[in-house]
Amino acid sequence: MESKKNKTDINLVVCDMAGTTIEEDNLVYKTLQRAIHKAGYDFSLEQVLAQGAGKEKKQAIESIISAYAGPTPQERIEAIFDDFLASLDDTYRTAVIRPQPYAEEFFARLRQRGIRVVLNTGYNRSTAEALLTKLGWTIGNTIDALVTADDVANNRPHPDMILHAMHLFGIPSGATVAKIGDSTIDIQEGKNAGCSLNIGVTTGAHTWEQLATAQPELIANSLREVLPILTN
């Protein structure tokens, strides 16, 4: 764990879902990779993660293809996205989805101290809510709110999802907000929202070295390492 700060007063923590608080072995990005391959492209999972991690999934498809094959007609992006959503529904129906180690205790310990916990995600609301149901997580009991790509006009790295979460709880400034995610775009999102702590975790899409390029205040190997920074 490396930190540029060791003390702050935080009253809202916004956490990404897959790779950060949920363990699903990059299932979403493997499904995304398959949908792109069906359209005639051949990109490795590492390439898909490098360009697509953390983004709203239609935006991710466009970013991945543009980075490695150049501009693509919007109707082709739409067709790949529709195929991806259908495949993801089928995949999640039978997949084993687990909380990241310590995630549920992490939520509980924060909420016991009066710190709000919000999950935000590049998934649409239907997918995100299906994941919560599969895990048995509920709003008001496990977490305080869920904000998805469907809820805002602009997705990551724009700050809209975090600003929406702040608005839900009447928090006027990012000075008391922490953002936690497993991708560089999570860190960029937090910085754009003015969050005082932007924390990368190495449990998901991006490596320590990749996360470091976004200059987070902290890079940790687990949520357990993060908790003392938020609650001291």
TrEMBL record:
Superkingdom to which the source organism belongs: Bacteria
Question: Pfam families given for it?
Answer: Hydrolase
Q: Which Gene3D superfamilies match?
A: HAD superfamily/HAD-like (3.40.50.1000), Putative phosphatase, domain 2 (1.10.150.240)
What is the protein name given in its UniProt record? Phosphonatase-like hydrolase
**InterPro entries, alphabetized:** HAD-like_hydrolase_sf, HAD-like_sf, HAD-SF_hydro_IA, HAD_sf, PGP-like_dom2, PhnX-like
